[in-house]
Design a protein that fits this description.
The chain is mainly alpha-helical. It is built from six helices and no strands.
Length: about 100
């Protein structure tokens, strides 16, 4: 499936929580991807802005983050205007911590 590219900039964004999320990601003050999309910016806002079906995004958060595609992860990174690798690292850290439990 070919998706539309997200071309938002912070000036166009109506939700300033993305700016807060960016600062927390880049300063390493956030410890998990789930925290980012539930506490900082609600998952419904992220899924809508990243053009990910809400049911799929909720399932990924609740059950297995590995079902998110690289394209979806990079679309989310674009929303926060951070390098995709930063979100990949948050996701990896969360997956590894769940395995240890």
């Amino acid at each position: 499936m070919i998706s539309k590219r997200i071309t938002h900039s912070f000036e166009e964004m109506s939700d300033p929580r993305f700016i807060t999320g960016k600062k927390l990601i880049l300063s390493k003050q956030i410890s998990s991807f789930s925290e980012l999309v539930s506490v900082i910016v609600p998952k419904t806002v992220v899924s809508r802005e990243a053009e990910i079906k809400p049911e799929r995004f909720s399932r990924a958060l609740a059950k297995d983050l590995k079902i998110l595609t690289l394209d979806e992860i990079y679309r989310i990174a674009t929303l926060y205007e951070v390098p995709g690798i930063e979100l990949l690292l948050l996701i990896d850290r969360e997956i590894r911590s769940k395995k240890k439990r």
